[in-house]
Amino acid sequence: WVGLQWTSVPRLAAVPLWTWLATVLLFTVMTPGDDIVFGGTGIMEFGPVLLVALGALPGAWVLMRHPGAGERFAGAGSSRPAR
User: Fold this and answer.
1) Angle at which helices 15-29 and 57-65 pack, to 10 degrees?
2) CB burial class (10 A; 0-12, 13-18, 19+) of residue 6?
3) Where in the sequence is the domain holding 31, given as residue range(s)?
4) 23 in a structural domain
5) pLDDT over 50 at 77, yes or no
6) Residue 71 lies in a domain
7) For the segment 20-70, what is each residue's pLDDT rounded down to a tens digit?
8) Which long-range contacts (CB under 8 A, 24 or more apart) does 23-27 make?
9) Is the pLDDT of residue 73 over 60?
10) Tell me, what's the pLDDT at 68?
11) φ, ψ for residue 54 (rounded to 5)?
């Protein structure tokens, strides 16, 4: 949502979302100083899945609802008219 306040280009507005997803992936694969970042028992076993579901999906939904999100599919050479 904040990315769309700074720019009207959906790809540029998605940079914070992609950065956040890369950080979650990085801490899932590599841990700083051999610490356990994502681990635990019970519901905490699903920490990365919950972070992606509760953190990325709302942001992706906002970006997909943006009016300029479908413009890249209706480019030159496309038989589909632009919205």
Assistant:
1) 160
2) exposed
3) 2-65
4) yes
5) no
6) no
7) 888 878 877 776 677 666 677 777 777 777 777 777 777 777 766 756 555
8) 24/48, 24/51, 24/52, 24/55
9) no
10) 57
11) -85, -15
d(C-alpha 12, C-alpha 1), whole Å: 12
Q: pLDDT (tens digit, 9 = 90+) per residue, 8-21?
A: 666 677 777 788 88
Amino acid at 44: M
60 lies in a domain? yes
Query: Tell me, what DSSP letter sits at residue 37?
Result: S
Closest CA to 22 of 2, 46, 52: 52
The whole-model pTM stands at: 0.51
Tokens of 61: 């939904």
Number of domains in the chain: 1
CA distance 70 to 81: 11
> Cα–Cα–Cα angle for 32, 11, 37, nearest 5°?
15
